[in-house]
Records
---
Amino acid sequence: MTVVTDVRAPRIDLTTVSTLTGYEDIAASIGLRAIHVAVEESPQSDDNGAPLLRASTTAVIRNPWVGTPTDTDLMPAAEHIAPLIAKLLTDRLVDSLGGPGTIAAFGKAALVGLAGEIEHASALIHTPYFGNLVREALEGTSILCFVDGQSAPGSSLRVPLWHKREASTRDYYQSLDVYLPGAPHENEIAVIAVASTGRRPHARIGDRTSDRPVTSEVLKGITL
């Protein structure tokens, strides 16, 4: 698919503009049908001593590759669509959770409808055009953990998260259930970003940096 840019169209600097309102042009450009935002609050304290918040944001868009051959180059469209989705989703995560400084863990996901390929979902989240923008907006450096797949409308998806800068910090390994009412339709893709303001509730299994060395030697002399 070839993305044609109208040279007469006005240029917009989205690094300085919020997409919480007035994003009709963006929606039309990427075939956006809906955005879903869900916030979960737990009485357990987060890293800043406030109630723990976890949020998911989902953008449901028209799949631009439905009906194309399996050797179609996906990158031209992904380069246009993925940054805009990243901006829409991270603006809402930051707004819902109180700013990028309050966010401790993050993750991502994508589900493609039944008329598409899993690779169509992957094309929107597994390139720098999405991941780098999510990391920058949420002030992270870790690779984003993820899940992707193919689904009919009305599915639930369990999205993993880990620490946004220290991915091996086990206390932040967690998952968030995301329900997709009426999405994705067979010709759609649902793209998801999730974040948390703290660690897993009641985390107490230690950390990889302080674990003692463990090998198959522990299997010797097992008492049952």
---
Amino acid sequence: MNADLPELVRVAHERAEAAGFDYSCDPDVGRLLAVLAARVPDDGRILEMGTGLGVGVGWLVSGLWPRTDVTVTTIESDPERAGLAAQG
């Protein structure tokens, strides 16, 4: 994966690749997520449904950086995937 990706995204993608998870967020879609996250109003909230292994939420959080006023909640129904995503 590209070295020019945000660190959170790169690490999550490596984790997904090692686990054989093929449904991670495409970089073009991820960049859109980052732009949308950057426009969340002050003290806003983001909900991601279907964490997978954390690539999408990596993009969202990267778009928010360095803000700390936005709450990001992500859920995953598969316990194994949730555990791997939590490593990030």
---
Amino acid sequence: MENRGETCLNCTIKSNIVALLTEKELARLETGCLQNVFQKGELIFKEGMPANHIVYIREGFVKLSKRGIGGKDYILSIAKKGAYLGINNLNKKTRLYYTSATALIDTQLCFIDIEKFGILLKENGKFATEVIYYIFDDEMNYFERLVNNVQQQVPGRLANTLFYFKNQVYGTNPFNMNITKVELASLIGTSRESVTRLLKEFQEEGIIRVEKNKYTILDEKRLGAIQKKG
């Protein structure tokens, strides 16, 4: 559903990056920006599609996934309010979406014309620097989780992922998990059966509590020990 909503200039939830733009630059950005609302489960963009926009999450959560060998989708990360999607496509040589993005709940997005975004990068050094920092932090977080998934056994990967949701995705404890056990298994690279079994074991040991989609970490020290042990 297309909706212009707030202007970039008077937006009350603009990111720290966009806040560095002048009023004139914000007005220019607005000419290439549209707001949309995607319902839970709706595809925002698909891997391999032409990347004409950078997508900013105003509200909600988005699942980023990539297709692997055999056509199976693997979840790479969960993006939340304040995240930019497709920012790696600023390179004109690779103007295709590297991942697919799906709304996990009803999600408000801004679609920013990638060409206009690129022009502002050239004209505003502080803006460009913050975009570089954003890309760096995003990649470092992803690489850290990737290394953990490669080096850890499944219990350690599950512990690591529970902390990831608590600290980086939701920022609360307890938190409502917006993905299924099948998707959770995809995120850590294992089967749904293994995830279900380990969650049950963690609950029986008093480490976590799971009530439908509500997850509570009861014993961070013991969960942290499992994470470190790998």
